């Protein structure tokens, strides 16, 4: 009987990192090819972070050949670059990637002892490395703690706070591997990026030579001899001279840069670093999207994250429908044309949050601060003081990082700053740290802050305009991920609250208060409750914070008031409504996301599990009424 040839024979033979050490250099090249083919085949079906992982294939192989995971602790910053790591630690079949019950798109401790940090918020790996290495040192553990940081994460101030602490101890066995691909989503910006350019680019040879000549000639005859020896050796100058300008004052040894797509060079660099004492930084140059032509030719983001695509062409299988972000992008550009005081900020997410069109028209009025949300918010307060109206567009989950600045820099100073929270509510398949469900509860404690949740395209455009019209307090606009619902027109408006549905029945009188993206499911539930004979009214308050006082007038006849929100129910909008209506003797059922970290699953599955789809709303109401 003929044997079926395995599609990825080398990859299939790797069940743990130590298996890599038996491979020859030629086999390592073939393994890299197999891994890329597996990544393209898998992610084209499931969607996920394709570009970053195509760029770290050889780097990850080299790290695992030179180190001994999990004894040596390897931490991946912005953990979306960990697919290759998963494949080399016993999880090479990624067919279930980002699917419910399958492999997570980020490191996951429940999957493997090789995974450490599950949060996908960037720039935290060096702090983890600082903490882990401190405790290792205290216990006499001589193993290495390694932080692989890339995709622009060094633009985050938290990384530099940690590096400052790591460098304070010359005996700490910490290895910082800078995966320098010059990009986060789009090209990395800022002074750090410019300095890495100096280290990376051969165009800076003459600058380096001049700098080295001045430095060495000041040392007398030994310096002149050293300069003559280094003259013409571009890589030698880079290794010996330029890095000191940035790192010598910190006390961090520097090795590199090396080609991150040369497995042998990477392995040698890591092995050299492991022979040193004290903190060491390794500079590795990679290409995001490496080996996949559609990604390499995608200038915007090198296929940073994709949905299901045709693997041959890279084209989406299902073209994206006009979504929330697209509407914001269009209306933001319109407003910018009308008002020259409107400026926009992004934290390394220019295209994902929809600021590309405004940047195209007004490049001087769109500021990318890098992965630095705290800085973005405080800078916005400064812009407002100087006469602008800043709009900070950010994923809802990432605003968590800047709560203090929202409270103390913006609200305390009565700054007119608008926050636009993309991917608010549950996003699903990216896992716990990407669900943007904390914002309503978190921001409800901020004095003077106003928060709106549009339900469709018309309300998004209208509420964005209302938000930027406020010049003495923070305003927030939140919306979900994905396509827009069909237009949802109001029957009438009462003191800013839209009445969306009214049906008279012969049983209990129910008032359902829907918010933002929950309106569609709430309306479906209302129709089914009407079919059961209930009198049902559906309200959309439009602006959730502060809690609209007119709700007391619109719920006078209600036997039960039900609030529905796709945010944390504890301390959220519903709790505010309950407190408002309690003196009026109203029974209030608050429905929202439980205070829980959800595993990765589709948005639809997560809403069903949380009881926030139409079925869940009807069931919860009937259960409440039956008590």
Shape summary: globular
The largest sheet has its strands arranged as: 7-6-8-9-11-10-16
Strand content: 15-25%
- What is the mean pLDDT? 87
- State the distance separating the first and last CA atoms: 68 Å
Structural class: alpha/beta
Total helices: the number is 26
Low-confidence stretches: 202-209, 232-241
Tell me what the structure shows.
There is one protein chain. With 627 residues, the chain is of the alpha/beta class. The protein is 38% helix and 15% strand. It is built from 26 helices and 18 strands. It has a 7-stranded mixed beta sheet, sandwiched between helices. Strand 17, helix 24 and strand 18 (588-593) form a beta-alpha-beta unit. Mean pLDDT is 87; it is low at 202-209 and 232-241.
SSE layout and pairing:
Layout: H1 9-12, H2 25-46, H3 50-54, H4 57-66, E1 73-76, H5 83-88, H6 125-138, E2 145-150, H7 157-166, E3 174-180, H8 191-200, H9 205-217, H10 221-230, H11 234-240, H12 244-247, E4 253-259, H13 263-274, E5 280-285, H14 293-296, H15 324-338, E6 342-346, H16 356-361, E7 366-368, H17 373-385, E8 389-395, H18 396-399, H19 403-411, E9 418-422, H20 439-443, E10 450-452, H21 457-468, E11 475-478, E12 492-494, E13 497-503, E14 509-514, H22 519-531, E15 535-540, E16 543-545, H23 551-554, E17 560-568, H24 573-581, E18 588-593, H25 603-609, H26 614-626
Parallel strand pairs: 1-2, 2-3, 3-5, 4-5, 6-7, 6-8, 8-9, 9-11, 10-11, 14-15, 14-17, 17-18
Antiparallel strand pairs: 10-16, 12-13, 13-15
């Amino acid at each position: 009987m003929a044997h079926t040839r395995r599609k990825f024979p080398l990859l299939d033979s790797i069940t743990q990192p130590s298996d890599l050490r038996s491979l020859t250099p030629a086999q390592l090249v073939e393994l890299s090819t197999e891994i890329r083919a597996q990544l393209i085949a898998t992610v084209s079906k499931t969607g996920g972070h394709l570009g970053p992982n195509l760029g770290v294939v050889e780097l990850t192989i080299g790290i695992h050949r030179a180190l001994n995971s999990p004894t040596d602790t390897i931490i991946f910053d912005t953990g979306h670059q960990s697919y290759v790591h998963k494949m080399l630690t016993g999880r090479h079949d990624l067919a279930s990637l980002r699917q419910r019950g399958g492999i997570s798109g980020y490191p996951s401790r429940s999957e493997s002892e090789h995974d450490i940090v599950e949060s996908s918020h960037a720039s935290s790996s060096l702090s983890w490395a600082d903490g882990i290495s401190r405790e290792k040192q205290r216990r006499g553990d001589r193993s290495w703690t390694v932080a692989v940081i890339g995709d622009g994460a060094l633009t985050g101030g938290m990384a530099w706070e940690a590096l400052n602490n790591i460098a304070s101890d010359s005996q700490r066995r910490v290895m910082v591997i800078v995966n320098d691909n010059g990009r986060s989503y789009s090209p990395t910006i800022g002074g750090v990026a410019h300095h890495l350019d100096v280290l990376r680019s051969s165009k800076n040879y003459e600058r380096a030579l001049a700098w080295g000549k001045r430095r060495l000639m000041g040392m007398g005859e030994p310096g002149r001899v050293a300069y003559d020896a280094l003259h013409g050796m571009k890589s030698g100058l880079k290794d010996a001279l330029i890095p000191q300008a940035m790192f010598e004052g910190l006390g961090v040894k520097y090795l590199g840069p090396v080609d991150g797509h040369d497995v042998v060079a990477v392995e040698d660099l890591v092995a050299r670093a492991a022979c040193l004492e004290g903190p060491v930084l390794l500079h590795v140059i990679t290409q995001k999207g490496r080996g996949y032509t559609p990604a390499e030719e995608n200038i915007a983001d090198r296929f940073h994250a994709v949905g299901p695509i045709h693997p041959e062409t890279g084209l989406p299988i299902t073209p994206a429908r006009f979504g929330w972000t697209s509407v914001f992008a269009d209306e933001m550009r319109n407003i910018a044309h009308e008002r020259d005081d409107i400026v926009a900020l992004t934290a390394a997410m220019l295209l994902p949050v929809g600021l590309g069109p405004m940047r195209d028209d007004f490049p001087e009025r769109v500021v990318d601060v890098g992965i630095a949300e705290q800085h973005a918010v405080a800078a916005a307060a400064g812009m407002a003081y100087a006469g602008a109206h800043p709009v900070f567009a950010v994923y809802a989950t990432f605003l968590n990082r800047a709560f203090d600045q929202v409270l103390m820099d913006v609200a305390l100073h009565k700054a007119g700053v608008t926050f636009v929270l993309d991917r608010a509510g549950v996003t699903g398949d990216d896992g716990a740290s990407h669900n943007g469900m904390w914002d309503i509860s978190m921001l409800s404690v901020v004095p003077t802050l106003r928060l709106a949740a549009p339900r469709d395209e018309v309300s998004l455009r209208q509420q964005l305009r209302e938000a930027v019209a406020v010049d003495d307090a923070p305003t927030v606009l939140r919306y979900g991920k994905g396509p827009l619902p069909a237009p949802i027109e109001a029957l009438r408006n009462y003191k800013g609250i839209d009445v969306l549905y009214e049906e008279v029945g012969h049983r209990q009188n129910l008032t359902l208060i829907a918010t933002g993206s929950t309106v569609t499911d709430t309306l479906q539930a209302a129709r089914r409750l009407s079919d059961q004979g209930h009198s049902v009214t559906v309200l959309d308050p439009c602006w959730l914070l502060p809690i609209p006082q007119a709700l007391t007038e619109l719920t006078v006849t209600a036997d039960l008031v039900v609030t529905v929100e796709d945010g944390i129910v504890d301390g959220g909008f519903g709790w505010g409504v309950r407190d408002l209506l309690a003196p009026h003797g109203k029974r209030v059922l608050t429905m929202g996301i439980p205070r829980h970290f959800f595993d990765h699953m589709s948005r639809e599955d997560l809403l069903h599990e949380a009881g926030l789809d139409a079925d869940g709303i009807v069931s919860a109401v009937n259960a409440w009424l039956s008590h």
